[in-house]
Amino acid sequence: MTACDFQPGLEGIPAAQSQVSFVNGQVGKLEYRGVPIEALAEKSNFLETAYLLIWGEFPNADDLEAFQEEITHHRRVKYRIRDMMKCFPESGHPMDALQASAAALGLFYSKRALDDPTYIRQAVVRLLAKIPTMVAAFEHIRKGNDPVRPRDDLSYAANFLYMLNEQEPDPFLSHVFDTCLILHAEHTMNASTFSARVTASTLTDPYAIVASAVGTLAGPLHGGANEEVITMLAEIGSVENVRPFLAEKLATKSKIMGFGHRVYKVKDPRAKILQKLVEKLFARSDNDPSYEIALELEKAVAEKLGGKGIYPNVDFYSGLVYQKLGIPTDLFTPIFAIARVAGWLAHWREQLETNRIYRPSQVYIGEHGLPYIPPEHR
Ligand code: CMC
Questions:
Q1: What is the pTM of this model?
Q2: Rounded mean pLDDT of 70-93?
Q3: d(CA 34, CA 32)
């Protein structure tokens, strides 16, 4: 191996063979198990999509019902997990709380039987069921309140919004949230999925895998960007200020949050679907200028950076959707995690099928044979 073989960020290097999802970044195409994202966003729901991703095929009606029932049944988290969350600092970021809580689940379900389909099924069900409950619980706990118990009669999406706001959501808003979950459920070999697969390759338990992936998703270059988009739109403040803001960012070589993607060189297909949801949500709301600012920014960035293939990614419009759903800004990335658990679990299963522990090489560029220098001579 020579230095020429090194690709920063492993750009373009296949890290796995996978059947879970497919992206064509030149034309803006995304498929889960061969099914276009547009069809899933329009016709499926999150749990059906999660099933498709994890088990590789659409469930029949009975399988789907059984899966939904199992997940509904496992939504509650143990009081000791809730008590543990009460010890977290209320100023801590909810992603850190989620990472710690996901890892803690492994303490309660510590049997590790990776060749037992029942164990795999239970772990899938528990993680899909409990992650939303833990996200909503921390939101209440950090405000000094008790968590809201999950409701068995509500859908996956509606139950999460209910646990968060303690009121039954409008069906349209539940539908919008469910669509967001579908759109964020999987996205080939992104950083958190790679992290999940590396962790899975050691044959550790799925709670450690999800905790590791949550930690990776938390960074601003990955899942954390949608939080920053909202801050940026507020900072811009008006349509007139879009171009001066962009000019200043470009002059200081700063990144514009919610734009650019390692794979997509056109507008992210998920951003197109989210934008339609944003339009509907803003049509129902008063004179909030954020969407107009976002549209103007998209236009201005396309003029200046379109030549480099920099267009809105999934995070550009998702923040606006979540804001209109009344979700606090620092919960945007935990919500991304709620959805992405499906993809991580699909990759966990796939990794187990043909596992070989990840052990890449490096290109050593340091020195050799240097003498030890005693402290007094340094
Ligand atoms: N604003 C301005 N310039 C940009 C941007 C941006 N958002 N993204 C890329 N560029 C420029 C970059 O400055 C570089 O220019 P040059 O070649 O002249 O130095 C060129 O485009 C290539 O950029 P890069 O950072 O080397 O590209 P990458 O593939 O390593 O990074 C990215 C991809 C998503 C990290 C990057 O586009 C970025 O930082 N975007 C802003 C953060 C963001 O929105 N993240 C969410 C990503 S999508 C959801 C997810 O994966 O979780």
A1: 0.94
A2: 97
A3: 5
